[in-house]
């Protein structure tokens, strides 16, 4: 990994001077005027210290060299925001991980990119959403469903297209169902609450007229509330149906989707670009926490955090087990998250939690420090501890 990081930084320093001037740097002062204007902007939110950002930057520069050929282009502009300098802007744009790529188009539409970070896929994504004519808007509306104040009405024809990318919460219902009629105003309020949220859509489908999707997803009772991620059903919500309960559920799922998508994308691309015979190269890694992302990470669900320093022998012994723990917990989309903090880089953060020895293992639940783990450091013991506290939520 050290060799990879060194290579990425050297490659970045050699390649970028020729291309980097083509990437538009945005600030809090000019961001809204530029990205919500007439042209499309594809923006990378990054931190200079982030190794994934450094290794990806040459590709971003190449993308800018392809699109930013004409000054003030009315087609597409490739841009970037340094979140260490523009912290309020990144907070407003709901940035929780680096790099985050967002496309701003059609006078205010926003689409987050979660695909492969390769030129072909990036260009295909940009070209798909760059057209902003009224006909394109009409076609998209017909293909993905009509929105009424944030609530999408789905049909057999547009269901698959609507849920194929991103996170979608869908109500399967029947008009004659009394429980459905009772839920209807709450569902409408939930949709209105999330109407400007680019991370999720709220939708409904009438199973009496649109039987195909209902049959395919084994709907046997009404209403059925299902969460879809990138075209797949990932959860069936069976909890309380008050507006606050539904809001809290989506807050958790949106956070998990955002953080997990970033981690999976980063790790899968590292494995693809650096061929290796090491099976661990394909493993999900623990989330690397810093002072800037710590609160957002631990604010929802359960997060098991390892505070460590690289030179500590006990930390080095635990490292592969901690990686295995992250991979094991990632098998469950709603399970506890595994993270780590390098105290040699984040001294103030570690000091705020009174860290005096390494490694220190602490579990957090919904932003609250719950308990320090002092038991055996084998995989099963650590896993059982994390799951036990997660189940207590």
From TrEMBL:
Keyword Signal: yes
Family: Belongs to the protein disulfide isomerase family.
A molecular function GO annotation: protein disulfide isomerase activity
Keywords: Signal
Organism: Pocillopora damicornis (Cauliflower coral)
GO CC field: endoplasmic reticulum
Key word RNA-binding present: no
UniProt protein name: Thioredoxin domain-containing protein
Pfam families attached to this UniProt entry: Thioredoxin
